[in-house]
Amino acid sequence: RKETDLSAEMEDKNKTARLVRVLYLLGFLDLFGVGLLLPFLPRMIKLLGFSHFLTGILGSLYGALQIFSSTFVGKISDVQGRKGVYVLSYAGPAVAYLFIGISHTAICLVTARAVAGLLKHGLSTGKALLTDITPHKELSKVLGYYQACSSAGFIVGPTIGGYLIDSDPTFALAAYACSFVFLCSSVLSLILLPSGKINKSTDDDLHKERKDHFSLIFNFKYFSTHGDFIFLRFLCTFSVLMLRTNFSIFLTEKFGVTDKMLGYITSLNAIAGTLSLVNVGRMAALYNNPSRWLKHSLLLLLISLIFISLAPSVTTVVMGLIPLSIATANLRVCLTNLSLSRATEDDKGALIGLSYSVSSFSRTISPTLVGAMQEFDVTLPCYFSALTALTATLVSLLYPIEEGVVGGPKKKL
Q: End-to-end alpha-carbon separation of the chain, Å?
């Protein structure tokens, strides 16, 4: 009997390992497909006759739909299982981007981005599924590998996308390739992922968890006690997004960058970001003080944004993107660690969820603001990004967030 139990346990471990590898592959394909077209979309929108402002509004449409659909899609995956959400998350965008390749019209483009905003939740569903099947002690390592595989897709995608668009300036080849990758992801999800619910939580547990989660998020007292962290998180995310949103338009209109070169720059930026994430654990161990780590990362962010804003050439911009990627990776982990240290066991999930909501809100409003500013000067969003980073740096210095302390520095006994 012991041998039978041991054999069954080994079989379960092998199945889990195979499923984890499948999810790594799907994570790679997700951002590979995105990288084929997304970095070049703002320029495509401009070629269709959109103004800078309308281009920004279209970007905000995607972010807004993601906010409103993510909770609903998450609930469905909790109750019905992850597989159906995975299949639909890739099948919908596959059809939408296929129509972009067939018909180069503004209506098709708007429809495709709306469909993607409503349905595309593959990465978040993948993280949820990994959480279902991975022991808690191994979860950080598994999620780190998942993030690395996904980032690798965004390293390869923009380079290939740049070549495709350089060969076919109508963007049709890149749209077809993007559609094909998402279609393959949908088919692989249908064939390789298990059906039904995998986690052992009951529907009553899920209902209680959601109720506690949302009641905590919409509790004013929760905002008042963690308001400094929430505000700082918003400033950091907003400053980076003000630069990255419509970054391709900034490079093409100010420096005359080609699509092929834009693909190289995007891939280089992704490589720097991935390497920074790999080494961020060493930085955490080196500092051993999240508050000081946060301040230094913010200073590096500020210097990088000023450097890029004043850059006289593309080479100088690329030089500024490398420290920017390092600062962004460190801030992402540092802010997460600080948020977890300040939360109780009952509200850690809610605080992390609220952090993602703040980031999503920044993604929603930043494209419209960037578009409005670029109507006057394509460099103006870069200056505003640096100003926002300066504000975040001053906030961290005047109102330091200490580890494990709500609302300010620790009191000495």
A: 58
